[in-house]
Amino acid sequence: MRRRVRVAYLSCGNELLPPGSEPSGARIVDSNSPVLGALLERDGAVLESIRRLPDEREAIRAALLEPGVDVVIGTGGSSVGKEDFLPGLVSELGALIF
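The structure corresponding to this sequence follows.
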């Protein structure tokens, strides 16, 4: 019997609102977290955490360094904008896999 993979899911972006919120202006509802979280659990992962993070380098860095998981999955904050810190931090701290 194999141990189930432990996953942390990070959803990054200042524009994100919690699921169930009313979108307003440039703010959008985080729809990725509940869907991807459910898919991970359905497929046998242990979902250790789901975190919505602001576009702040140190907040994202701290979340990536939290112990206790095998895999970190992140969405948002992953393009080439000045506040898209996730890819650079993952490359610095581990392996960036697309």
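The first strand starts at residue 6 and ends at 12.
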